[in-house]
From TrEMBL:
Domain NTP pyrophosphohydrolase MazG-like span(s) in chain numbering: 36-109
Organism: Roseobacter insulae
Protein name from the UniProt record: Nucleoside triphosphate pyrophosphohydrolase
EC code: 3.6.1.8
Family membership: Belongs to the nucleoside triphosphate pyrophosphohydrolase family.
Length: 272
């Protein structure tokens, strides 16, 4: 029966669960899969989430289908290990998230009014989450902001939490002033302080830059991804122009590459 399930392409999630059980079977499974733990699989989970985001950014829908499958596999992996250890199962995880979504959407699944703006519904969502944290004895304003989040995203979430209780600058003017202050401190640190102190000042500047993004209504993580994509696109164009002259970047110098960079940048602006 189990063998039939593994080869049944119409069996859906139960097929994938059975495949994972077979992979993790101590007697007949895959040696690599058997020795994996929550800690060893966690980095793959993060990587797969980013690959999903990358496929979306590139609007590559066939690729997204595959990446979503890879991400789903990570959930299957963690729940299989949870079941083996007696912590939880795939089905208990599904029950928990289903219960949470119903509880957090009383305007859809309950008697609450749907006649609210998106901002009002967001505020309601946050209020419900605050009640859930209180039920978990998470009383601090910053409790529950995951440590493992990407640093820019965690900075944004920490700042949003602090802003809810009034710990926030009133406008971008104060944030920009703070950026100038932190930049000056970084320059001073570079010339007079230790590497660890320089790193601390650099981190302070990044934290305030994330805060500026929040005040401007921007997602710092998305903005930096876009900047990375722009840099990649322009540098590849510089390489292509060098290649047209039979050269590689290592055959060039900064002055030449900078001039080509400016040409590429100007060409992009003309196209807009």
């Amino acid at each position: 029966m189990a063998e039939d399930l593994i080869h049944d392409r119409n069996a859906g999630i139960e097929r994938l669960l059975e495949i994972m059980r077979r992979l993790r079977d101590p007697g007949t499974g895959c040696p690599w899969d058997i020795e994996q733990t929550f800690d060893t699989i966690a980095p793959y989970t993060i990587e797969e989430a980013y690959e999903v985001a990358d496929a979306i950014a590139r609007r590559d829908w066939p690729e997204l289908e595959g990446e979503l499958g890879d991400l789903l596999l990570q959930t299957i992996y963690h729940t299989a290990m949870g079941e083996e250890a007696g912590h939880f199962s795939f089905h208990s995880v599904v029950t928990a998230i289903s219960d949470k979504m119903v509880a957090r959407h009383p305007h859809v699944f309950g008697d609450a009014s749907r006649d609210k703006s998106a901002d009002q519904q967001t505020a309601d969502w946050e209020a419900i989450k605050a009640e859930e944290r209180a039920g978990k004895a998470q009383q601090g304003t910053l409790d529950g902001v995951a440590i493992g989040l990407p640093a820019l995203l965690r900075a944004l979430k920490l700042q949003k939490r602090a802003a809810r209780v009034g710990f926030d600058w009133p406008s971008t003017t104060e944030v920009l002033d703070k950026i100038q202050e932190e930049a000056a401190e970084l320059v001073e640190a570079r010339d007079t302080l230790s590497p660890s102190e320089i790193a601390e000042e650099f981190g302070d500047l990044l934290f305030v830059m994330a805060n500026l993004g929040r005040h401007l209504g921007l997602d710092p993580e998305a903005a930096l991804r876009a900047a990375n994509a722009k840099f990649t696109r322009r540098f590849e164009a510089v390489e292509a122009r060098l290649a047209a002259d039979g050269k590689a970047p290592s055959d060039s110098d900064l002055a030449e590459m900078d001039a080509l960079w400016n040409d590429v940048k100007s060409a992009e602006k003309r196209v807009r």
